[in-house]
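In the previous chapter we treated chains in isolation. Here, by contrast, the input contains two separate entities that must be folded as one system, with a combined length of 1253 residues.
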Amino acid sequence: MRHPLKPAETVGRRLSVMRCFAFGLFLSAVPTVATAQQPPTDAATYRVVLDRYCVVCHNERLQRGTLSLDGLRADQVGEHADVWEKVLQKLQTQSMPPPGRPRPEAAEYGRFSSWLATELDLAAAATPNPGRPTIHRLNRLEYTNAIRDLLGLEIDGGALLPGDDLAYGFDNNADMLTVAPGLLERYMSAARKIARLAVEDPSVEPDISRYAMSTLDVQDDRMSEDLPFGSRGGTAIRHHFPLDAEYVVSLSLAGNTREPQEIDVRLDGARLALLPVGRWPAESGREVASREADGTLSVRFPATAGTHVIGVSFVKRTSVVEGVAPARLPVWTFGTGRGFVERMALDSVDIGGPYSPDTIGGEARGAQDIDPRPHVFSCRPTSPADEGPCADEILGTLARRAYRRPVSDDDVRLLREFFAVGRRAGSFEAGIQRALEMMLVDPEFLFRLERDPAGTAPATAYRLSDVELASRLSFFLWSSIPDNELLAVAEAGRLGQPDVLEAQVRRMLADERSTVLMSSFGGQWLHLRRMRTVTPEVNAFPGFDDNLRDALVRETQLFLEDQFRDDRSVVDLLTADYTFVNERLARHYGIEGVYGSRFRRVTWTDEKRRGLLGHGSILTVTSLATRTSPVVRGKWVLENILGTPPPPPPPDVPELPDRVESGVVQSMRTRMEAHRANPVCASCHSRMDPLGFALEHFDAVGKWRDTEAQTPIDASGVLPDGTTFDGLPALRGVLFERRDEFVATVTDKLLTYALGRGIEYFDRPAIRAIVREAERDDYRWSSLILALVRSQPFQMRRSDS
Amino acid sequence: MIITKRALPRRTVLRGLGTAMALPLLDSMVPAFTALAQTEARPKPRLGVVYVPHGAVMNNWTPATQGAGFEFTPILQPLSAYRDHLTVLSGLDHAPGAQMPGDPAGGHGRITGAFLTGVHAKPTEGADFEAGRSMDQIAAATLGQHTQLGSLEVGIGLPDFAGACDAGFSCAYISTLSWSTPTTPLPMESSPRAVFERLFGDGTSTDPAARQERMTKDRSILDAVTEKLSRLQDGLGASDRAKLTDYLTAVRDIERRIARAEAEVDRELPLVDRPAAGTPTSFEEHVKVLFDLQVLAYQTDLTRVISFLMTPELTAQTYPQIGVPDPHHALSHHENNPESLAKLTKLGGYHTGLFAYYLDKLRATPDGDGSLLDQVMVLYGSGMSNSNLHNIQDLPILLAGGGAGQLRAGHHVRYAEGTPLTNLYLSLLDKLDVPVERFGDSTGRLQQLSDL
C-alpha cells in the first residue's frame, strides 16, 4: 500500500499548483489526477533501498566515483539536489548498480526512479533556481545577423571579426564571449566599415576581396543553382558592392590551363563577359586571353550598391547531359598540389572596386537589389531646418533596434552629438555615418545585458522584464535582434501573457530567420561544423572531394530544415524514411537515377540508411582519417543521442594490442575486444563500442560496405543490459525504445544553446518538465521550443549573490 | 606615422589586381626605411615565439654533437645558412604539459595552453578554463610600454572544431599561445588583412591630418563608451561588472595606443599595399605573408613581442605540395612506421624551411647597427617531442637571432636531463630586462645561452 498512484501523476498536480502560485504563465505539464498525499514512509523506504544496493560502494570510506551516499537525507532531497540528480541519472539510464552486482527487482527499481524524480521536481519548484547567465557579448553570427536586420546589410562577418570559442559544445556561451584587448579595435574597425556601407559613403576607397576556391573541389559539374545550366566548375559569390560604381572581377586559374575554354562571368545571372582562355586553334578566330593573373583576365562592369551574385563558370563543351560524364578525382602531385590530369579550374576570384563612382547614374538601380538606404534613412531632410528632427527620427529608430529597448532622450542626445560632428565636416549622410560608428560599438549593442530589478534580494529568482525576454527569444530563435513587432509587444508589457508569447514564438518560428536555428544549433549539436575540417586520408578514400564534403553537409542541413519546417516529432530525426541527395551524393550512397547538382528528396526503399545515423556527414565526423572508429561513434551516440557521455578515459591507458599478432592481422573488433577484457576499460567501452559496431557497415566517409579487407562486416553488438542488435536498423529500434532519453538529450542541448550557459543540476527539473510538456504534442519541434520558452530557466534569472 | 595604403592611381590598382597579396611586401619599402633605421642606433630587443605542433622526429632534429660546428640534421638543414644566429637547445622538459592524475587522456589539449604559461591547463571543456599568464605577455607588459601595441598574436588554421577540441580540454588551450591573465586567452589572428589592420589601422589615407582627424574621432567614441560603461555598471552583479571591466580595459588599451601614435605622428612609415581581404589560397603563401607582417611589425616598432602558431595541435593540415598528403595529426601517430617517420621528417624540414624564410627577411631588414635578425630572440619549437607518445621530455627547441648582442649563437647545447623549459623563459626574460624570480616549474636560469 505504498503507492496508491503513480508518482508522475502526483507531481503533475502538485507542481501545477505551485506554478500557478508562483507565476501564472506556467502551464501544468501533466494531466492532473485527484489524489491523496504520498505516505510519509517513502523516504525511509528508499533510504533502505539505497543502503542495500548503492552504499556498498558509494560510502564515505570507499567513495567510488567520488560519490558518497551514506550521509544523504532522503526526506530532504533538495539539500543535496546535485548528488541526487546524479543518482537519478544513473537510475534512468539503468547503468547502476553495475552488471554483476545485485539490483532491486525491476518494478521497485522503476518506482525508486520515479519517486526520486518527483521529489527533486517538488524541491526545485519550492525554491526555484533559474541560474544566472552572465552578460553575453554578441558572437560573430549574432553580430552579422544583427547588422543584416538593423541596417539591411549583408556583411561577411568572417572577414570583419574573429571566431568564437566553444563551451559545452556551442559558440554562444556567455562565459566564453570575453573581450580580449584586440577585439575592441576589430569592433571599431567593423563599425567604421559598416557605417560607410550603410550610408553609401561616396568617399569609400577601392578595395579588393579575394574569394579562393578549395583545392579539393572537383570543378566538373554545375557547382551552384546560381550558375547557368550547361556550365561546369567555378563559383557563385554573394558580394556587397558599396556604391553605384564600376567594379572589376579578376580571375586566376589552376589545372590544365592550356585547354581551350570559355569562362562565363555573370552579375545576378546576366552575362557580363565570355572570356576565351587557353590555346585555341588559330582557325577558331578567337582572341586568346592570357591566363596569367596579372589583371588581364578580368572584366570591368558597372553595378549598383547592394548585394549581388557574381557567377563565374566554364562553358561545358560537351553534348553529354549534365552529370553523366565520369567524375574526375583530384590527383595530388608533387610541387603543384593539383593533378596534371585535372581540367582547367578556377583558383580564385578577386572583386575590386568601387571605381569611377561619379560616372554611374542612379538609374541603374535594379529592383532586386537589397538597397540598404531605406533601412537607415527613414526620412530625408528637405530643408536645413528639417535636418535636426529627421536625424532624431533616424537615430532614435535605429538605437531602439540596436539596443533592443525603448530609447531615452539621453540616447538620442549622445548620438546627435556625433551626428553634429559629422555634419559639420560633411553632409547629412556623413553625420548619420558618424553616429552609426558610435552606436555599433556601444556596449548596449555589443552586449546583451540583463539587470536585476532594484531592490531584489541577493540570490533570488526573479522574472525577466518583457524587453529582456524579447531579446532572449530573438537570439535563441533567430540569432539576431528582435524585430519591430516583437519589441513593440514587449514594450507594451504584453509578452508575459501566455497567448501573446505563444503567438510570437509561432510567428518567429514561421519566419525565414528561424532557419539559423537548425544551421547553428543543429550544426553544432551534431558536430556538422567539423565537416569543414575533416580530412579523410587520400589513399584510403580517393573519392572524397569537396563536392562530396559539401553535399554531405547539405544533406543533413536540408533534412533538419525539412523536419523543423514540417514541425515533425523530434524522434523522427532517428527514424525518417527519406533524405535529400544530389547526383554526387546519390553516387556515394548507391542511389541510381539522380542527375545534376540540385538536391531533391528521396524516399528510402530499404531500412539500411534511415534516420540521422545513416547520414554520411555524421558517419564521417565520427571517423578517423584512415578508418572508422566504433569507439568515437559509440561515444558520439552516447553524448548526443542518449545524453550519457562516458567519463574521460583514465590516465595510462594501455595501447591497443598490436595489429599483427603471431603473423595474423587482427581486426579492429578483435583488438578492441582484447581491450575490453580489462574491467576498468570495460565499464565504459561495454556501453560505447556496441553502439559503434552497429554502424560498421558504413566506412569512414559513410559509404556502404559489406566487407572490410575481404572480411565480412560484423555489425552486431550486445549492450550491458543484454540487449542485442545487428546493424543500424536494429540500433534504430533500440534508440526508438529509449526515445525519452533522446528527447531529454535534445532538450538539454537546446537549453544550453538557448541560455548561452552550461546546464547545471538545478536545471534538470526544468528539462524534465519541458519533456513532459512536449510529450503531449508528440515532441514536435514547436512543442519542445514552446515548452522551453515557458520554462523557469528561460523566463527567469537568479539575482547576484 | 601610419601609412596603410598607397594612394595609387586607378590604373596602377587595376594592374595590381591579383597581386595585392604579393609576397615580398617588404621589398618595396626597405629603401624607404633605411634612413630611418640608421638614425636609431640603440638596440631594441624583441621577443618572438614560433610554435609548430606535434613535436618532431627527434633523431632527425637533434644534432649529433654539442657545441659549435655541429652538423645540421635533416629537419634543421634548411636553417644551415643561419648557423651564426642559431642556438639549438636539447634536453629541456615541459612538465606542465604532462598528463596529471585525473586528467583526460587526450595528449594535445593541454600542450599549447601550457607551452608559454608554464602552468598545467585546468582540465575543463567549459567556461571555467584557466592556465597562466604567458611568458610573452610578461615581456609585453614591460616592452609594450615603448610601442603602440603591447604584443601581436598570429596563428593559422585555428580550429573550427565542433564539440570539444580535445577530450576534456577547452578549445582555448589549443587556439592560442598567449594569455594576458590566467583566464584571458588572447585570440590569434590568421587573416593577413586583419593583422595588417591591427598594425596600421583600417584607414586609407596616408595624410597626417586625416590620421589625426581619425584619432580624434576614435577618442570621442572611446570617451562616450567609457562614460556609458560607468553608467551601465550601476546595478550589475559582480560577474557582469567584470565583463564590462574587460571592455573598459580594452578601451584604455586603445586610448594608450592613440596617445602613443599622436606622439609619434611625424614618424616616417613605409609604403605598403595592404593585403587583399580573404585568406590566401595556399598554406605556404599564408605563412609567408604572415611572416612578412611580423617583420613589418618589428621594423616599424609597432610592437616588440609576437607569438605565432604556425598551425595548432590536432591540425589536420595536409601538405600535398611536398608529397605529404596525410593529415598532420593522424600522421603524427606514426607508430614508428618508417614511411610515416620519413614523411614527418620531410614535414619538419618544410616548417623549418618556412622559418628560414622569416629569418631571411629579418636579416634583410636593417635595424640599429645591423639587421633585425641581430636584434630579435625568436623561440622556435613544439610542446612535445615524440608525437606518437605525446612525450614532453627533451623537446625540439631552438633560439634564433642575436638578441641585441645577448645571445651567443652557433651552438648546440644539451642540458641535464629534466631541466625545465621554463628555465629558458627566465633567462629570456632577463635578457629582455624583465626579470622574474620564478616561472611555472622553473628551478633557475639556463646557463650557456650567452656565457659559453
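The CA atoms of residues 23 and 214 of chain B lie 29 Å apart. Residues 1-40 of chain B have pLDDT under 50 and may be disordered. Compare these points with the single-chain example from earlier in the chapter.
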